[in-house]
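W.,

You were right to be curious about this one. When I first looked at the sequence I had no strong expectations either way, so I just let the prediction run and decided to look at it fresh. Below is the sequence, 217 residues in total, followed by the output.
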Amino acid sequence: MITIGVFDKQKVMREAICSLLATNEEFLPKAVTPETEDLLAEVGNEGFNILLFNIYTPQFEEMRFISQIHSTCPRTRVLVLSQNNEEELILKTIKAGAKGFLDANAGKNELFEAIYTLRGGYDFYSESITHMLLGKYLKKIKNKETVEAPGVEALSQRQIEIIRMWGNNMSNKEIADKLFISVRTVESHKNHIMQRLNLKTNIDMIKFGIRNNLIDI
């Protein structure tokens, strides 16, 4: 079971998110206190695998709390949900120690994928945020900044195929249907790719694909 704490200032939202997560039999969600001054102690006592942290208007207090969770509860990985997808906020949450960020356009499947990805030890950002961060990377390439490139020879043909399909906006379900394998097998292949190449995020995998001409830009 993946234990998930759900933080939101509004009770109805805490209950709604918990109900959504409970539809997955592998998730064990629990609404946590809406008071940030008591939240750190509760998260420490519960030892959640994931903390869903819903942000409406970003404030210093919330960034400070994410930083405290990152430093005092390293086993709990913070996944930020926010309707605000401004670049400054995203970079602040990453700097504070959040391991995932989903914007208002994220759906149920993407939320579940983010939870599985964080539980597996990797970072996860929604598609729009991935494009924003990737844009910065492409700008560096155009400016001819030095980029270290791991070798594609470290991968199997199936792993290369999955990078190509995923980098061209195919979901895990679409990849699974195309290759006649399960979604869990696709996730397993992605984890093995990241381990073999020492990558930490889905953005890193896209960068690898671009550097090695596996993904069209």
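Here's what jumped out at me. The radius of gyration is 18 Å. And, maybe more interesting for your project: The mean pLDDT is 83.

Coffee later to discuss?

I.
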